[in-house]
Amino acid sequence: MIRERRNPKPFGILVALFLVLIVSLVGCEKGTLGLKGGGISGSVLDSRTLTGISGVSVTALSGKVDEDGRASKFVTSDSNGNYYFSDMRADEWTLTFDKVGYLAIDGTASNTVSAVVVNSETSYVPSVRMEQTYENQYVTVSGVLKDAINGTLISYGNAQFIFGQQTFSNRLPTELTTGFRIPASLSPISLTINVTGYQSMKYDFDSLRSDRDIGTVLMPPETYSVVGRWQDVPGWVFLENPAANIFAYSGNRVVATATSHLNEQQFTISGIPRGVSVSIEAEIKGYRMNGPVVVYPSGDFQGTIYQTFSLKNNFSPIMRDVRVVIYSNSLATNDFVGGYCEQTGTQWAQTIVTNPPGFTIGTPRVIDLGTNQVPTGYTLMFRGYIVGQGKIGNEEVLINDDGADAQIVTIQVN
């Protein structure tokens, strides 16, 4: 009996198909080379705050071109700004980043971000910083306006605030305290502040990316000037050329000052707030003012007002009693003795010598001419003389203004 022989061919075919299937699966998992793909990891930060940016669209483009063109992958950054690509073929990949409100990183020559992927490895890209564009975003600019002269809050007057090309007109100065909402800007922008009665102020910002408090703004008021002209200056005052300190008062507050020398013949006191009436007072050596000179500007006058200041009419010299005493070895009976001040022309009455001559105890060697008043604060020349003998003597003396008693001037006549 001959046994029937089984045919093993179907079994071999099944084994072969099984092996092919395994190899195919391995090839799909490992790639064409039988290796796992690589990955890219990185983070996206705000360039100003250095905090992670969520929701950034990150696109990876391969460098090689296959039958379908360049390979691409897409992910979105998480809440911390991190992103991760996986299953990427070995190649050099270019990354682009995009999100509304930020300048895109688009892979151009100036901002290219790239990474080389190696199979079975993760390539780490340094943190990418994106700069905000602030499009359709607003910031608040605030501050406080104060008078630069008296430091008081400016609360009244028509104000205008100009931010670049945007103008806020017919506003109260105090509205800056609340602040103005304006579009944010990465570019330089200027703020011009105009308030009625004050000089314009301008601030330059390199950018406005967030709310800005510019603090206290001291605004100089619009002003006018007074030019004072010295008149009736005595010769001895002109020659000594004393300094004069000038003060402009508004109420009991000094709003402007100036310094002048009298032989300059005039002075300018500037910076007086527009529309403010002032009382002008001056301090001059040897003089006191009879009363302040009041200046009344009209309306919003901003020019120059001319005003005379007379040392004869607006001022009075500070006077002091001076006693002149004549001393001489040649005084004789019936001689007339007198004296005067050369600068002021002040005369001392002549006195006749009545005692007999000689060098006895009763011989008059000193004649008291009495007292007279002369201006103080200056050095004056006093002259004494003996009529008939034609003799004269001189004495130059500084007349002090700090004594209640008469100042004695002794003149020797020989």
Q: Can you walk me through this structure?
A:
With 414 residues, this protein is mainly beta. It folds into four domains: 93 residues, Carboxypeptidase-like, regulatory domain (Immunoglobulin-like, Sandwich), CATH 2.60.40; 82 residues, Carboxypeptidase-like, regulatory domain (Immunoglobulin-like); 95 residues, Sandwich (Immunoglobulin-like), CATH 2.60.40; 94 residues, Immunoglobulin-like, CATH 2.60.40. It is built from three helices and 31 strands. The strands form nine sheets. Strands 1, 4, 7 and 8 form a four-stranded mixed sheet that branches. A hairpin with a 5-residue loop joins strand 26 and strand 27. The longest helix is centred in the N-terminal third of the chain and has 22 residues. It is rod-shaped. The N terminus is likely disordered.
Summarize the topology.
Elements: H1 9-30, E1 38-46, E2 57-66, E3 69-76, E4 82-88, E5 91-98, E6 113-117, E7 122-124, E8 128-130, E9 138-147, E10 159-163, E11 166-171, H2 175-178, E12 180-183, E13 189-195, E14 201-205, E15 212-219, E16 223-231, H3 235-240, E17 243-250, E18 253-261, E19 266-273, E20 278-284, E21 287-289, E22 293-295, E23 304-310, E24 315-317, E25 319-327, E26 336-341, E27 347-352, E28 366-375, E29 379-387, E30 391-398, E31 407-412
